[in-house]
From TrEMBL:
Gene3D superfamilies: 6.10.250.810, Leucine-rich Repeat Variant, Pleckstrin-homology domain (PH domain)/Phosphotyrosine-binding domain (PTB), SH3 Domains. One of its GO terms (biological process) is Rac protein signal transduction. It comes from Microcebus murinus (Gray mouse lemur). The gene is ELMO1. GO terms for cellular component: cytoplasm; glutamatergic synapse; guanyl-nucleotide exchange factor complex; plasma membrane; postsynapse. Pfam families: ELMO_ARM (PF11841), ELMO_CED12 (PF04727), PH_12 (PF16457). This is Engulfment and cell motility 1. Coiled coil: none annotated. Residues 319-492 form the ELMO domain. Its main location: cytoplasm.
Length: 727
C-alpha cells in the first residue's frame, strides 16, 4: 500500500551527529516538526532552530515552501533565520578584519534566501551595508597596500550581499543616498578595479536606473559613456555584458529629448566599432546574455527612427520641400534649369511635374503629399536623400532607367521607397520595446554608423532588380513588395556578418529562386482545390487531427522544462511539468538546473488531476500577466504565457521557452479538455500531413486529369445475357 500523500521521507543532518531518517507529516505545523527533531538530539529552545536544504542552495524551509520537500530530500537542522541574521549583523561590524571578512562571505551566500533576507532587512541590514560602502571603504583603502586581497574580497562580498538582498524586491531602490551612488560609480570609473567589484557595481547601477526614475537622473550625472567604454575593450565577456546592460538601461530610461543626444555621444565615442571589434568579432562565442544585450541595443538604436517615422511632412515647410527639390536636382542635373523670367513660370511648373512623375511620386504636382502617411512619414524621405547623396550613381541609374521606359514596366522610385521604408520598419519592429527573452541581434547592423540607411539602399536596389525580373507593371506593385519582403526575410535569417554579405545573399535569392522555393514548399497547391480532392480532404482530416492530438499528448507525457522569469535575467530558475502516461495527472516541481533529458515522475512532488482543470487561458487573460510588473508590458512574453485554472481560485502559470512549446502545450491541454486545437502549429501540421497523405493516395493517378464532376452513369444494357450464374 503506498504511503499517504502528506507523508514525506527525509534525512536530517546536525553537525557532530549521525543523520536521522524521518517521516514528515506535511499536515503538522513546521514548528512542531522542528521541536520533534530538536528533542531527538536533546536540543533546548527549539524556536531558535530551523530546517534548510542541505544542498548548495541552503534555502530555509518555511510554511510557504514546505510542499517543495520531496521524498529522499536531505535537510539540515540549523539556527533560525532570525538568529542567523542577528549574529551576522553583529559579526560584520567586528573590529577584526578576518572576522568581518568571514561574516561578509557568509552574508553573501545566505542573502540568496528570501527568508533570511527578510530577517536581515528587518534589522536595517541594507542601511548597514550602504554605510560600510560609503564610509568604510576609505578606512579599508588605507590598508589596501598591505592587505590588498583582503580589501578586494571584503568589498566584493559586501556588494554581492547587497545585490542579492535587493533582488528579492523587499526594499525600494529610491531609498539610497547620492553618496552611495557616487561611491558605486567611483568603482566603475576607476581604470584598475577588481573584476568582481566592477561586475557587481555595474549590476547595481543597472538595477538603479531600471527601477527608479530619480536614481536614473543621479546615475546619469555620475556615469558617462566615455567612462564605460574602456570596460568593453577588455577580454572579460561578463564585464562587457554588464557594461552594455548599463548603457542599454541609460538609453531605455532617458527622456525622449535626451535619447538622440545620447545616441550622438555613442557615435562620437565609437561604441559601435568597439562592440564590433571587441565583442562580436572577438575570438570567442557570444553567450545568450550578451546576445540579448546586443539585441536590446540594436532595438533601442532603431527606435530612434520612430520620431521621423511618425512625423508627417508639412507641405508648407520650405526646408522639407527643398529635400524633394534636391532629389530632383541630383537625378536630372544634366538638364538645364529654367530661367527666372516671369514668362517661364508655367514652363517651370510643367518641368517639375514631369520630373516628379519620372521620380515615381504618386502626386506629381505636389509630391510632399506622398509623405503625409505615417508610418513611414519623413523617414522615407530621409532614406531617399541618403541614397541619392551616398549612392549617387545607383540612384541616378535607377531613376533614369525607369523614367525612360515606355512599356509601362517602369518601377516608381518614389512610391517604392515609401513602401519599402514602411516594410523595413515592420521587419525590424521599429518603435516596439525589446523582448524580455529575445537575443535575435544581427551583426551586420553593427558594421556601419548609418546601418538602417545602408540597409534601405541595398533593399531599394534589390526591389528595382526584382521588379525587372518579374517584368512588373504598376498593377503588380503589391506582388513585388511581397517577393522583396520574402527575399529580405530569408537573407536575414542567415545572420550575415556584414552588409556586403547580406547583399551577396540577396544576389542568390533572385525572383526565379524565390519561385523555386515557393514551388518546393507548396508543391502545386492549386492542383488540390478540385471538388473530388476537397472531398477526400474532408474524409482524411479527422484521422490527421487524431494523429496530431496523439503527438501533442505524447509530448506532454515527455514533459518540458520551463523557466521562471524574474527582474534580473541572469539568475535562471527552472521547473518541470509532464503528463502521466494514463493522461490523468499533471506532475510538476522545481529543478536546480536545466535537465538533460526527461525528469522522472517520482522526482516531481506536486500533482494536478486533469479532472480538476476548469479552463486554459492564454496571453493577457493569464493571472501572472495581470500582476503588477514589467512582464505584462512585454509583447513577446505575453505571446508565450498560458495558465491552467483549477479549483476555485487556484492556477498553474506557465511561460513557454518558445512558440513551438507554447503551441504543443496549449494544444495538448485543450485536447485533454475535449476542445479544438487552434494553434498555428496545428494548422501547419494539418496542412503538411494532409498534403502528404493526398499525394500518396494520388500517386497512381500521376498525369491523369481528375474531373471536377463524377463521370455520367451509363445507360442500362438491352439485355443481361453476359451475366453468368457461378453456382
Amino acid at each position: 500500500m503506498p504511503p499517504p500523500a502528506d507523508i514525506v521521507k527525509v534525512a536530517i543532518e546536525w553537525p557532530g551527529a549521525y543523520p536521522k531518517l524521518m517521516e514528515i507529516d506535511q499536515k503538522k505545523p513546521l514548528s512542531a516538526i522542528i521541536k520533534e527533531v530538536c528533542d531527538g538530539w536533546s536540543l533546548a529552545n527549539h524556536e531558535y532552530f530551523a530546517l534548510q536544504h542541505a544542498d548548495s542552495s541552503n534555502f530555509y524551509i518555511t510554511e510557504k515552501n514546505r510542499n517543495e520537500i520531496k521524498n529522499g530530500t536531505i535537510l539540515r537542522l540549523t539556527t533560525s533565520p532570525a538568529q542567523n541574521a542577528q549574529q551576522l549583523h553583529e559579526r560584520i561590524q567586528s573590529s577584526s578584519m578576518d572576522a568581518k571578512l568571514e561574516a561578509l562571505k557568509d552574508l553573501a551566500s545566505l542573502s540568496r534566501d528570501v527568508t533570511f533576507a527578510q530577517e536581515f532587512i528587518n534589522l536595517d541590514g541594507i542601511s548597514l551595508l550602504t554605510q560600510m560602502v560609503e564610509s568604510g571603504t576609505e578606512r579599508y583603502q588605507k590598508l589596501q597596500k598591505i592587505m590588498k586581497p583582503c580589501f578586494g574580497d571584503m568589498l566584493s562580498f559586501t556588494l554581492t550581499a547587497f545585490v542579492e538582498l535587493m533582488d528579492h524586491g523587499i526594499v525600494s531602490w529610491d531609498t539610497f543616498s547620492v553618496a552611495f551612488i557616487k561611491k558605486i560609480a567611483s568603482f566603475v570609473n576607476k581604470s584598475a578595479m577588481d573584476i568582481s567589484i566592477l561586475q557587481r557595481s555595474l549590476a547595481i547601477l543597472e538595477s538603479m536606473v531600471l527601477n527608479s526614475h530619480d536614481l536614473y537622473q543621479k546615475v546619469a550625472q555620475e556615469i558617462t559613456i566615455g567612462q564605460l567604454i574602456p570596460h568593453l575593450q577588455g577580454s572579460d565577456q561578463e564585464i562587457q555584458t554588464y557594461t552594455i546592460a548599463v548603457i542599454n538601461a541609460l538609453f531605455l530610461k532617458a527622456p525622449d529629448e535626451r535619447r538622440q543626444e545620447m545616441a550622438n555621444i555613442l557615435a562620437q565615442k565609437q561604441l559601435r566599432s568597439i562592440i564590433l571589434t571587441h565583442v562580436i568579432r572577438a575570438q570567442r562565442a557570444i553567450n545568450n546574455e550578451m546576445a540579448h544585450q546586443l539585441y536590446v541595443l540594436q532595438v533601442l538604436t532603431f527606435n530612434l527612427l520612430e520620431d521621423r517615422m511618425m512625423t508627417k511632412m508639412d507641405p508648407q515647410d520650405q526646408a522639407q520641400r527643398d529635400i524633394i527639390f534636391e532629389l530632383r536636382r541630383i537625378a536630372f542635373d544634366a538638364e538645364s534649369e529654367p530661367n527666372n523670367s516671369s514668362g517661364s513660370m508655367e514652363k517651370r511648373k510643367s518641368m517639375y511635374t514631369r520630373d516628379y512623375k519620372k521620380l515615381g511620386f504618386i502626386n506629381h504636382v505636389n509630391p510632399a503629399m506622398d509623405f503625409t502617411q505615417t508610418p513611414p512619414g519623413m523617414l522615407a524621405l530621409d532614406n531617399m536623400l541618403y541614397f541619392a547623396k551616398h549612392h549617387q550613381d545607383a540612384y541616378i541609374r535607377i531613376v533614369l532607367e525607369n523614367s525612360s521606359r515606355e512599356d509601362k514596366h517602369e518601377c516608381p522610385f518614389g512610391r517604392s521607397s515609401i513602401e519599402l521604408t514602411k516594410m523595413l520598419c515592420e521587419i525590424l519592429k521599429v518603435g516596439e520595446l525589446p523582448g524580455e527573452t529575445c537575443n535575435d541581434f544581427h551583426p551586420m547592423f553593427f558594421t556601419h554608423d548609418r546601418s538602417f540607411e545602408e540597409f534601405f539602399c541595398i533593399c531599394i536596389q534589390l526591389l528595382n532588380k526584382t521588379w525587372k525580373e518579374m517584368r512588373a507593371t504598376s498593377e503588380d506593385f503589391n506582388k513585388v513588395m511581397q517577393v522583396v519582403k520574402e527575399q529580405v526575410m530569408r537573407a536575414l535569417t542567415t545572420k550575415p556578418s556584414s552588409l556586403d554579405q547580406f547583399k551577396s545573399k540577396l544576389q542568390n535569392l533572385s525572383y526565379t529562386e524565390i519561385l523555386k522555393i515557393r514551388q518546393s514548399e507548396r508543391m502545386n497547391q492549386e492542383d488540390f482545390q478540385s471538388r473530388p480532392i476537397l472531398e477526400l480532404k474532408e474524409k482524411i482530416q479527422p484521422e490527421i487531427l487524431e494523429l496530431i492530438k496523439q503527438q501533442r499528448l505524447n509530448r506532454l507525457v515527455e514533459g518540458t522544462c520551463f523557466r521562471k522569469l524574474n527582474a534580473r535575467r541572469r539568475q535562471d530558475k527552472f521547473w518541470y511539468c509532464r503528463l502521466s502516461p494514463n493522461h490523468k495527472v499533471l506532475h510538476y516541481g522545481d529543478l536546480e538546473e536545466s535537465p538533460q533529458g526527461e525528469v522522472p515522475h517520482d522526482s516531481l512532488q506536486d500533482k494536478l488531476p486533469v479532472a480538476d482543470i476548469k479552463a486554459v487561458v492564454t496571453g493577457k487573460d493569464c493571472p501572472h500577466m495581470k500582476e503588477k510588473g514589467a512582464l505584462k508590458q512585454n509583447k513577446e512574453v505575453l505571446e508565450l504565457a498560458f495558465s491552467i485554472l483549477y479549483d476555485s481560485n487556484c492556477q498553474l502559470n506557465f511561460i513557454a521557452p518558445d512558440k513551438h512549446e507554447y503551441c504543443i502545450w496549449t494544444d495538448g491541454l485543450n485536447a485533454l479538455l475535449g476542445k479544438d486545437m487552434m494553434s498555428d502549429l496545428t494548422r501547419n501540421d494539418l496542412d503538411t500531413l494532409l498534403s502528404m497523405e493526398i499525394k500518396l493516395r494520388l500517386l497512381d493517378l500521376e498525369n491523369i486529369q481528375i474531373p471536377d464532376a463524377p463521370p455520367p452513369i451509363p445507360k442500362e444494357p438491352s439485355n443481361y445475357d453476359f451475366v453468368y450464374d457461378c453456382n
